[in-house]
Amino acid sequence: MATFTHDGVEIYYESHGEGEPLLILNGIFMSCASWDAFVPAFSARTRLLLLDLVDQGRSGKSDREYTLERQEQVVLAFLDHLGLERAHLCGISYGGEVALRVAARHPERVAKLVLSNTTAHTSAWLRDIGHSWEYAMNSHDGHQFFATCIPTVYSPGFYDAREQWAHDREEMFVRVFTPETYDGFARLTRSAERHDERGNLARIQAETLVISSQWDFITPLPNQLALVAGISGAAHAIIPDCGHAAMYEKPSEFASLVLGFVTTSTALVHIQ
Which stretches of the chain drop beneath a pLDDT of 50? Predict the structure, then answer.
């Protein structure tokens, strides 16, 4: 819907609805378009802000390597561009890693924080998953990319029940993704390789909800438990029978958790 320029890259964003701003930050393979089905429900209760980070979706591609700090600065520049002092922040996977940086280093900019299927640090497990993804991305081959990167994003039950849907997506990747797309995915993956916010979790002041999944093979449940333990007062929800892509597998549960959390005022809660 609109763009602004940051550090020489055109950044794409969308704004839907009115009310308190809720900014959603995408996982590596996601974009603003990933949220099309959620726009009606989310924009009915919030001002929904969608943002493609550097190398994502309709935003521009980087001409150099970078770290998550660059994406953190994009988020801050975006809030400044819209004249927003602060917003609710919801980060999915990679986007959650960016959200952690913003919330820890700029607590005044974050009203409430939702972290879905994300982690405070890139473990050896996640690092080597990223390396396998990079090998597939460097092939610029949609079939290889799909076979390597996509099945483990979902729970086995969900994937088995939607095998044809999954392979339709594979054919879509083959048709749509360009070498530039895969190179962008690879830079995004590398940018998180040294991610480690474990020492900064105590600096987060925003009310926080951590959303986990029972069958998350990318950022396993122990990663989520570490987030909950490290962030003071964090609430925790575990979605059963669900993989890393919780928003796709359990959209109603995911939307209910996020909207319920960000739109309920704790001032209305009284313990009798």
Answer: 268-272
- Tokens describing residue 165: 């849907």
3-state secondary structure (DSSP) of residue 172? helix
C-alpha distances (whole Å) from 253 to each of 38, 41, 238, 240, 249 are 12, 13, 10, 10, 9
d(CA 93, CA 26) in angstroms, rounded, equals: 7
Terminal alpha carbon distance of the chain: 47
The residue to which tokens 């993704």 are assigned: 177
pLDDT digits (tens, 9 = 90+) for 62-85: 999 999 999 999 999 999 999 999
For 102, phi then psi, to 5°, come to -65, -45
- By the 10 Å C-beta count (0-12 exposed, 13-18 middle, 19+ buried), 85 is classed as exposed
Instruction: Give the chain's length.
Output: 272
pLDDT per position as a tens digit, 6-61? 999 999 999 999 999 999 999 999 999 999 999 999 999 999 999 999 999 999 99
Distance CA 8, CA 215 (A): 39
Q: How many CA atoms lie within 13 A of 186 on its CB side?
A: 19
In degrees, rounded to 5, the angle at the alpha carbon of residue 47 between the alpha carbons of residues 43 and 50 is: 85
Name the burial class of residue 204, with classes exposed (0-12), middle (13-18) and buried (19+) by CB atoms within 10 angstroms of its CB: buried
Residue for token pair 């092939």: 139
231: Cβ–Cβ under 8 A, 6 or more apart, which residues?
201, 202, 204, 208, 210
Tokens of 186: 């690879």
Q: For residue 72, report the phi and psi dihedrals to the nearest 5 degrees.
A: -55, -45
Dmax over CA atoms of the chain, in Å, equals 61
